[in-house]
Amino acid sequence: MVNIVLPVDFGDKTKQLVEGAVKFAKQINGRVFLIHVAPSDIGFAIGDMGFQYFPEVEQNEIREELVQLNKIQQRILAHDVDCEHILKQGIAKDIILEHAQDKKADFIVMGSHGRSGIYDVFVGSLTKGITKDSNIPVLVLPIHE
Fold first, then answer.
1. Fewer C-beta within 10 Å: the chain N or C terminus?
2. pLDDT digit string (tens) for 12-47?
């Protein structure tokens, strides 16, 4: 079975990205390793007292993101594609590349929905970073309008 790492950010185009990844997985008998990387600074705020940490904010955000990951996993499984998911915190590019190595990924599937800069408009800054630093093939799906 072919191992596919699929990073998701829960943005507008996540549904299209997941659909493309499922189609690809079915074509190559793939298994999907879904990953979401939450920022390390969830729960931090700047106030009158400087930086403050609110663990309940972080816990609530992580809980909601896990709910979203579970829903995506169920959609993938409904298409008869094997899928597992994980949520980690940290620097997205580093975590995704490490996860791909851990899972012995054959492919990383990313979307091309960039948000800034000319190159990033077409590819995306995270996608650009992954393709630049990955020794695993990266399939970039065009999911912009």
1. C
2. 889 999 999 999 999 999 999 999 998 776 654 566
pLDDT at 22 (0 to 100): 98
Strands 50-53 and 44-47: what pairing? antiparallel
Global confidence as pTM: 0.83
Report how far apart, in Å, the C-alpha atoms of 56 and of each of 42, 63, 90, 111 are: 10, 10, 18, 32
Neighbours of 110 (CB within 10 A): 27
- Maximum separation of any 2 CA atoms in the chain, in Å: 55
Q: Which residues contact 74 (CB under 8 A, 6 or more apart)?
A: none
Q: Which residues are CB-contacts of 83 (< 8 A; sequence separation ≥ 6)?
A: 31, 32, 33, 34, 73, 76, 77
State how far the Cα of 9 lies from the Cα of 48, in Å rounded to an integer: 31
Distance CA(21)–CA(75), nearest Å, equals: 12
Work out the average pLDDT over 61-85: 95
Instruction: Name residue 36's beta-bridge partners.
Output: 87
Cα–Cα distance, 125 to 133 (Å, whole number) = 12
Distance of CA 24 to the CA centre of its chain: 16
